[in-house]
Amino acid sequence: MGTLWQDLRYGIRMLAKNPGFTAVAVLSLALGIGGNTTVFSWVQAVLLHPLPGVAEQGQLVAVETRMPDDSLHTSSYPDYRDYRDQNQVFSGLIGVELMPVNMGFGGDDRQVERTWGEIVTGNFFDVMQVHAKLGRTFTPEEDRGLNAHPVVVISHSLWVNKFGSDPNVAGRTVHFNGHPFTVIGVAPNDFQGAIVGISASFWVPMMMQPDVLPGEDLEQRAPTFVHIIGRLRPGVTLARAQAEMTTLASRLEREYPNTNRNVGVVLNPLWKAHYGAQSVLLPVLLFLSVVTALILLIACANVANLLLARATVRTKEIAIRAALGAGRVRLVRQLLVESVFLALLGGAGGVLVALWASNFLTAFLPQTHFPVAILLGVNQGVLGFALLLSIVTGIVFGLAPALHISRPNVNESLKEGGRTSAAGSSRHRLRDLLVVSEMVLALVMMIGAGLLVRSLRNAEATSPGFVPNHVLLAAFDLRSNGYSSAQARQFFELLCERMESLPGVQSASFERFVPLWFYGRGYTRPDIEGYVPRSGESMDIDYNDVGPNYFETMKIPLLRGRDFTRQDRADAPLVCIINETMARRFWPGQDPLGHRLNSMDRWWTIVGVAKDIKYHSMNESPESFLYFTRLQSPGTDANILVRTAGDPAALVTVLQEQVHALDPGVTLLEWGDLSGLLQVSLIGQRTAATLATVLGFLGLLLAALGIYGVLSYNVSQRVHEIGIRIALGAQPRDILRLVVGQGMLLAFWGVALGLCAALAATRFMASLLFGVAATDPVTFMGVALLLAAVAFAACYVPARRAMRVDPLVALRYE
Q1: For residues 527 and 601, what is the distance between their CA atoms, to the nearest angstrom?
Q2: Residue spans of beta strands (DSSP E) within 210-324
């Protein structure tokens, strides 16, 4: 231990004697370690420990329904109940769904605000191992009897903001959709709920579904709205749990063939669930993890090059120590201690970088009324990662230089001019190899960033099939105002008529679900008259409930038939509109107008065929889709759409006035420019493209510094040679060509090998790309030319210095 401490003190003195070298090395390592630490903090918050306040999250798994087309879906409450009661692999199984409600306080139930919470099964808090901060959580009795127990556990933030941190909050009343609920407890401060990235404000029992989530049938066996999460028993593996749950799903398929035919179950760790923030950010974070690892490798190569260059200065020192009896192991240990200490300094700088940059991810989160919240920051786990990474990094970049310098030719090294020995030539080749490696890594990073930028631009330029510009969207839910479905339909019709009569308004309509929005979708399993499904064919089809003039307002072309009108009322014949993909699927070569389908136990006649649009994501393949008229569908909620010739934001006040004129008690819950709201669908692409570009340019800068450092060192070592060349008649352009040629040769090999590496690596990015091939030649050639240009600039600076060498001074060099 004493010898190790002696090595450390000696290493500190050596680094202090070379402040320039130390500063450059620490800065390079700080950027590399800081980038990796920052991304790790994001990975920890989103993937490794995604549910704040929940104990032993590694035991939690998402239990998801696998549909006949292999897509993953939410489950039904009856399926959840059977899985819960018949399995032997989970210590507990919960059901949960995120939902918005109209929340009111006190006696004025008409003054409400939109609030998001979770409807959960009664064992929710027990399985999550979360205990109330105040009061209690649910009892088994509150998980029985439909609408029998209107109780609620509120979040810590709701308790603080709406109840003034009242310690006697238990027993107070809050209204959800006009229905009174009794507060029984307050959740811990750090608990946000069971949906990753979403901060719930309250939790109510699943049995209160008719009051807080109307329109759903809790006893419907077909997959509906329930997310299932299970906690594995101690010692039970995911594979064993999957096998048992597959057996249970097969049993349910036999017992309920009408709803469960070809329906299976898939168990995934929470980080692989198809819902929540992790489903959007998983590919982005995995990509960024690879990119930051490449940044760290480039930084390590830079520092290794610096150490090799510094080794020349220390050749005599190492030779003297070897001559005095120091063995190779002793020399290597001394050099590694210095390297690790240098890396620890870089790690400390990296932690500062992470403290500054850890919240950058929040800049990409959508600015919506949706309660998006991811707890980012540097905690003990992140600090431990930074420490471990620093130690490993110190060994990685220090080992090769230590092995080279610890084997000196003592006789040659102690002579004047010993720097030109074979060992020096070996170090020269290693430095060139490290520079080429840096350029290869930088080229791969820049090509990846270029592909993502082109993909994002393609996605932004691609039409979703409708025109979102100049459209105001506003959300309403009239349940808390006591409206029936018929009254709500009349309200929305009258509001649209009023808006259409205003100057500058081109048209107005309403819909239930917003296309390309990340929350809310409807699906049905219709029977097509005259069509017999193939074995294993999925008949699940997404739908939307829309109002009259919807297709005109959204500017969705109708290929056949007509739009919905105000005559398509509840007492009129039931009608629907299908998209072109559905027409080709079920009526190939035919006119589908006049044909019928059965959905929700009612027969609908097709009156129109609309052009395909993007419903869920910009890179989705065309899929079948149904439109029903909201005038013939039950429900009290809708999104008003107003197309205007000017700025949609200017209509918000006017819309509020029109709403107040119809009913002063109705509240405008959410609103925004439709084109701006739809940018949420590109959050993954935008995050990946922006951060990859920043990191790519950082890698390019580090690679340029690497080639600059090698050439600068070579010029300093060849001053004598260059002086002789000039004295013998060499012109400045000859010296320029000599130095730049050496650097550009390294750049050539870096670009050539980098293009080959990128061809192999970018194919793994295909899932992140839209409208651009993973081997796009424009991106590959453009980045290669950029890297060559940067390399030339890095070569030119030391070449200019070489051109200015005074032969008289150079001939006296050494």
Answers
A1: 9
A2: 227-232, 264-269
d(CA 752, CA 663): 70
Tell me the whole-structure pTM to 2 decimals: 0.79
Confidence at 207, pLDDT banded by 50, 70, 90: very high
Q: What are phi and psi of 163, to 5 degrees?
A: -115, 10
Do 652 and 499 contact (CB within 8 A), yes or no?
A: no
Instruction: Convert 465-487 to b/e letters by CB count within 10 Å (16 or more is b).
Output: bbebebbbbbbbbbbbbebebee
Sorted by sequence, the CB contacts under 8 Å of residue 171 that are 6+ apart come out as 182, 183
In whole angstroms, what separates CA 490 from the centre of its chain? 41
- Give Cα 395 to chain centroid, integer Å: 32
The answer to whether the CB of 541 falls within 8 A of the CB of 625 is yes
Confidence at 328, pLDDT banded by 50, 70, 90: low
Q: Are 64 and 265 in contact (CB under 8 A)?
A: yes
With b meaning 16 or more CB within 10 Å and e meaning fewer, what string describes 178-214?
bbebebbbbbbeebbbbbbbbbbbbbbbbbbbebbbe
Q: Are 659 and 491 in contact (CB under 8 A)?
A: no
C-beta atoms surrounding 431 within 10 Å: 24
The model's pLDDT over 599-634, given as tens digits with 9 standing for 90+, comes to: 888 999 999 999 999 988 777 888 999 999 999 988
**Is 414:307 a contact under the CB 8 Å cutoff?**
no
pLDDT attached to residue 357: 85
Q: What DSSP letter does each residue of 160-190 carry, written as one string?
A: HHHHTT-TT-TT-EEEETTEEEEEEEE--TT
DSSP 424: H
Distance CA 386, CA 29 (A): 11
Rounded-to-integer distance, Cα 220 and Cα 43, Å: 37
What are the φ/ψ torsions at residue 459 (nearest 5 degrees)? -65, -40
Could you tell me whether strands 670-673 and 625-629 are parallel, antiparallel, or unpaired per DSSP bridges? unpaired
Q: Do residues 389 and 37 touch, judged by C-beta distance below 8 A?
A: yes
The mean of the pLDDT values for the chain is: 84
Q: How many C-beta atoms surround the C-beta of residue 511 within 10 A?
A: 20
**CA torsion angle 541 547 551 552 (round to 10):** 180
φ/ψ region of 265 (left if φ > 0, alpha if ψ in -120 to 50, else beta) reads beta
Torsion sign (Cα): 2, 30, 21, 424: positive
Cβ neighbours of residue 650 under 8 Å, at least 6 residues apart? 644
User: Which of helix, strand or coil describes residue 326?
Assistant: coil
**DSSP secondary structure code for residue 480 in this structure:** G
Instruction: Reduce the DSSP state of residue 518 to 3 states and report it.
Output: coil
Please return the burial class of 751, using the count of CB atoms within 10 Å of its CB with bins 0-12, 13-18 and 19+: buried
Distance of alpha carbon 265 from alpha carbon 242, whole angstroms: 8
255 phi/psi in degrees, rounded to 5: -80, -30
Residue with tokens 């005074």: 806
Closest among 729, 704, 730, 722 to 796, alpha carbons compared: 704
Amino acid (1-letter code) at residue 648: P
Ramachandran region, residue 692 (left: φ > 0; alpha: ψ -120 to 50; beta: rest): alpha
Q: Which residues contact 560 (CB under 8 A, 6 or more apart)?
A: 583, 591, 592, 593, 608, 609
Distance between CA atoms of residues 651 and 654, nearest Å: 5
Two structure tokens written together for 625: 């889709």
Is the distance from CB of 197 to CB of 375 less than 8 angstroms? no
How is residue 259 written in tokens? 């709803």
- pLDDT at position 521 over 80: no
As a whole number of angstroms, the distance between CA 594 and CA 344 comes to 74
Contact by Cβ (8 Å): 377, 359:
yes
Output DSSP code: residue 421. Answer: S
| pLDDT score of 419 more than 50 | no
pLDDT (tens digit per residue) in 159-205: 999 999 999 999 999 998 888 999 999 999 999 999 998 899 999 99
